[in-house]
Amino acid sequence: MIPVPGFEGRRVAVFGLGRSGITAARALQAGGAIPVLWDDGVSGRMQAEAEGFLVEDLTRADWSGFAALVLSPGAPLTHPKPHWTVERAHEAGVPVIGDVELFARALAALPEGRRPRVVAITGTNGKSTTTALIGWVLKQAGLRVHIGGNIGIGVLALPEPTADAVYVIEVSSYQLDLTTGFAPDVAILTNVSPDHLDRHGGMEGYVAAKRRIFQAQGDEALALVGVDEAWGQGIAADLRKQGRRVETVVSLPSPPRGEGYGAAPGALTVDGELLADLSAARSLPGRHNAQNAAFAYATARALGVAHEAAVEGLMTFPGLAHRMEAVGRLGAVRFINDSKGTNADAARQALASYPAVFWIAGGRAKDGGVESLRDLFPRVARAYLIGEAADAFAATLGETPHVVAGTMERAVQMAAADAAEAGGDQVVLLSPACASFDQFPDFEVRGEAFRAAVLALGARPEPAA
User: Which residue of 28, 57, 157, 223 has the fewest C-beta atoms within 10 A of its own C-beta?
Assistant: First the structure.
């Protein structure tokens, strides 16, 4: 745990007692604060009381006595309307912050010689893989690395800071909205595409939240920006105008010379010159994973890792579960679990990684469905549609071969049979382009259902890369 100083003897309201909220309360208490906890759910309040925390109904509290409100990232800050705790905090002049801001303040309170280095990653897609990949590369190079935030362990539950440590932190747009002083040594924006627009009041608010990852960086800090789309290009240009240290990553079939880091299928380039051949890196297929590799390589080099060690780390990365994960093989048919592909843009990256796929898609659709993937439909040998979105996706697919399978188990059975009948090397790909909440509690459970269905057919589990 990372104790949070600065609130000694003062009351701090903490709303939302999920992973980040209860961890923030522990860290505040360890730093000498008096956290006052509340949650709309009884179970969260009961857990807090069982740990000995002060639980108080914040609807009846005297807000003038609070030094801050620590808000769960799941509670809306501004849209569709501010959470009632936010309104009460604003009325009382109480600052509203989150767990990442507490982490930033804890590090800023350390003497300069004791501060660890921080790498922070955000983006619509790819941030979890990039976070894990960076952590892997740095660990293989011998650095002391702590990985957490929006992936895995809550940021304040990570080990206490030491001067030789590197924190690799995934941060969401919700968390970034609650920061003011978060100043990573390396800040990464992988990409931007429409997502969570209801929580940010539209695309402008969403982009503004993402770019907050760079807002407090010092002059020596590095900003790494994906520039595949206009939003990233604009952010990179603005940062350069401010005199900031910026490097860009572009993902194209053949990245042009002079465009910074380039991510082509199986290749990592800088200014058009080949840095590394990634074709043998089994856990980094496709252009999007080459982009992830470029972010990891640039980060490692910025932190003093030698070229050879950085490339070796990329080549040995085992990959993440549910993110382009090879889960099994049945004859010549490979089964790829990309359950984390919860929107069309993420599914695009997966579909573009293979010349032909037997595609399992569906769930609870995001705005726009799969219309934006129409140019990739020729790669779909057949689609197997599940969940609430099945009929709508069928209408969009039109003449593209498809069937409404309904359930994951049925989709896997049908796709496996069709792929085997097609002969030769084939890929069955789960990349739903949807949220999971119609049939599964989250994308992890959905991915495990896919894995179980694949193995139930007698498929041989894929060995680790």
Answer: 57
